[in-house]
Automatic annotation (TrEMBL):
Name this polypeptide is given: NYN domain-containing protein
Top-rank taxon, per record: Bacteria
Domain NYN stretches: 10-140
GO molecular function: RNA nuclease activity
Pfam families recorded: NYN
Length: 173
């Protein structure tokens, strides 16, 4: 009998959100959480996200889908943009949890995670580096050391895209 996997996912939500939107689709986070569990044996999925007042329904739905949300306060700039970079939090959480998981799944295309991914590979603790957009991700993550671990979300659009439920002919959902 095979031992049940105990892998953790560390998700850069801003990178995922921007990349998927640029591909002109929306990610169904509930389906994504199931995919992480079924494909990579992810028992805990940490989602790093900037906290914006008024988005509480979103945060509740993410938690109900099975994500552990790690919030960072955001800053609103004079030009109206909001910034809540969570890179340091993701790296710190991955290292704090290091003894608790078998392998990690890092979900981002951001080269700022080069050192974390390399460290995990060197210790045989990286299950996958899941890139939101295979045509647009950091050159730092294209090095030979990462190639066996690269997976891409582009190919998962049909499986993971948010689809509005349409009423049946009788008017019910």
């Amino acid at each position: 009998m095979q031992k049940k996997q105990n892998n953790y996912a560390f998700i850069d939500s801003q990178n995922v959100n921007l990349a998927i939107r640029a591909l002109e689709w929306r990610l169904d986070f509930k389906r994504f959480r199931v995919h992480l569990r079924e494909t990579y044996g992810v028992s805990k999925a940490f989602l790093f996200i900037g906290y914006i007042e008024g988005n509480n329904d979103l945060y509740v739905s993410l938690q109900e889908a099975g994500f552990i949300c790690i919030f960072k306060p955001t800053l609103e700039y004079k030009d109206g943009t909001t910034k809540g970079n969570c890179d340091a939090e993701l790296v710190l959480q991955a290292m704090m949890e290091y003894p608790n998981y078998d392998k990690a799944v890092i979900v981002t295309g951001d080269g700022d995670f080069y050192c974390l991914a390399k460290y995990l590979i060197e210790r045989e603790k990286l299950e996958a580096l899941l890139i939101p957009d295979k045509s647009r991700f950091s050159a730092l993550l294209r090095f030979k050391i990462f190639r066996p671990h690269l997976r891409f979300m582009n190919d998962l659009r049909e499986k993971l895209a948010y689809k509005k439920e349409r009423p049946r002919k009788d008017g019910t959902l």
